[in-house]
Amino acid sequence: MTEAYRWWQRGVVYQIYPRSFMDSNGDGIGDLPGITARLDYLQRLGVDAIWISPFYPSPMADFGYDIANYVDVDPIFGTLADFDVLLAAAHTRGLRVILDLVPNHTSDQHPWFRESRTARDNPKRDWYLWRDPGPDGGPPNNWLSNFGGSAWAWDAATGQYYLHSFVKEQPDLNLRNPAVEAAIADVMRFWLDRGVDGFRADVMHGMLKDDQWRDNPPNPHWAPNSNPYLAQLQIYSRNRPDAHPIIARMRRLVDSYPGDRVLIGEIYLPNEQLMQYYGPNLDEAHLPFNFQLIALPWSAPLVRQAVDAYEAALPPGGWPNWVLGNHDRHRLASRVGPAQARVGLLLLLTLRGTPTWYYGDEIGMQDVPIPPEQVQDPWEKNVPGLGLGRDPERTPMQWDAGPYAGFSTVPPWLPVADDYRTVNVAMEEQDPTSSLALCRAVLALRGRTPALQVGSYRAVPAGDPDVFAYLRTAGDSRWLVVLNLGPESHTCVLTDPGGTALIQVSTYLDRQGTAALSALSVRPHEGLLLECDNTLLLQTPLSPA
Ligand code: NOJ
Ligand code: CA
Description:
With 545 residues, the chain is α/β, with parallel strands linked by helices. 26% of the residues lie in helices and 16% in strands. The chain has 3 domains: 2-106 and 177-438, TIM Barrel; 111-163, Alpha-Beta Complex (Oligo-1,6-glucosidase, domain 2); 456-531, Golgi alpha-mannosidase II (Immunoglobulin-like, Sandwich). The protein is built from 17 helices and 19 strands. The protein is globular and about 75 Å long. It binds 1-deoxynojirimycin and calcium ion (CA).
């Protein structure tokens, strides 16, 4: 029954931050040959696709999200030939490869911008967002950079400001200019022709700005000493309705290639606005990223409410997706605690919709505190001390208990976590109760269970406020997920469905066998995946409860 679904609906996406995955040449920075060397690990893990954050030539002002050439590989990461080897090796193993597409901005070192800034009448001037000063001689409006301060940088040579939604070394492109849109389409073709399976488009909701350049209003809910960017409601500097036709054209381009390529959008917006990025005819992003699990307070009623609200908000035919972590947000195990991290992984891998997780979350990697003198992230440098910096979640993958966790032979660009001697792939591969073993077990079950891949979702009462329970159903096959998001043990009373079920997986990986759902005990921080076996149900008298 899963044949009717695309790989990006059935499958699981694994995000690789290339600087931190595997260093193959001993310079302390991860690279493409390093990823290739670790593909067997990913295949064994059971994921279906990797999304690789940018590896294009870049001055690294924002660690690769400032691109100086969209159609090459930065020497730090390797060569185009290395990329071709990686792609072929991934495909041989049945792994799809999704690239990061950054259409909103380039590096200030991109030849387009270098030309654009030479003169007001340069043919590339209009490729970026240049404006005269405001009436007071200052910036043209009050828009803020995501990474602190005004979004406008002054260019003394030509007497105008340019817009940068991120650091000033990342000037925003003018996607209203058809030549710019065409240039980005060429970039997409370059990689699609090479055989990539799709794109994750950076700040998809930010590609167009208000054409009247209106000031953003203040955010009445902003708390002083919190992220200064949130002091405004960003209603004019992003999420503009006229961006949708551009996204639809990107989608058409992706769809024009054979082999089910995918377009994923990075979009941080509430449900109602997020859903617009599926497109009025499901003709925009296949998957507008759903980041709720990263942001939600970790409580069973709130998670359940969020899942139900998201399910209810989806447009007909729109395929759901869930993201548990990424290179911009603190690590799962640090957000919810190491004990709950496994519950989070089981949730991610059993909700309805495509899961995306972040490298290292499968072994329980945590944020690493970064001493001030080792800070790399421009956000932390610009807006220090508020916990916004992203270095803690970008530290080297912990492969083994050897020097530098097997990531490199020299001190890496960010420090390795202190816990690497016990939290690492090699150890967890030997431990049948590890977090890695849990991910493998759940992915293996998912891989052969249509109900878990594409079945319907319905929350069911569990009789306890700490417990979130839901059913995944496809035909006669019914699977029950019971997640204890709290630190106490509970006896759940499940009557819908009632009867007996088979425990297939506990997040502790220490129990299996039948269980009566009318009195199902769950331990602190335990998640259970149960198969509601119809044969068993027939044999077992339903409990009166
Ligand atoms: C979102 C990316 O995920 C983030 O890492 C980056 O800094 C900004 N977009 C700018 O490209
Ligand atoms: Ca390297």
